[in-house]
Amino acid sequence: MLEVQLQFVRGVPTHGKVEPKLHSGGKPEFYRHYKVELVADVVRSTATGIDRVNKFSIKATGLRFAPLFNGAEQLIRITSVPSYSLAVYVPVM
What we know:
- The chain has one domain.
- Helix content is 0%, strand content 57%.
- The strands form two sheets. Strands 2, 3, 4, 5 and 7 form a five-stranded antiparallel sheet that branches. Strands 1-6 form a two-stranded antiparallel ribbon.
- β4 and β5 form a beta hairpin.
- It starts with a strand and ends with a strand.
């Protein structure tokens, strides 16, 4: 089980769009075209000094999660993504 509690002050979100075309390693002629549109708000970032987080805690239990969250980890960024749209296109072959 992974439990996350987060409380933060909203900022001005940024809108982003990416359209990568990823080719298969086994069949280079085959590809998938992804169209992603998102809205993101960086609420904590150690690189930029942003910190609008009022409360944050994470609790991990179980065989898979507990070893990953043993107290030695370091939080470097929290991003709120309130809107995310993904479309995947595959060519007709």
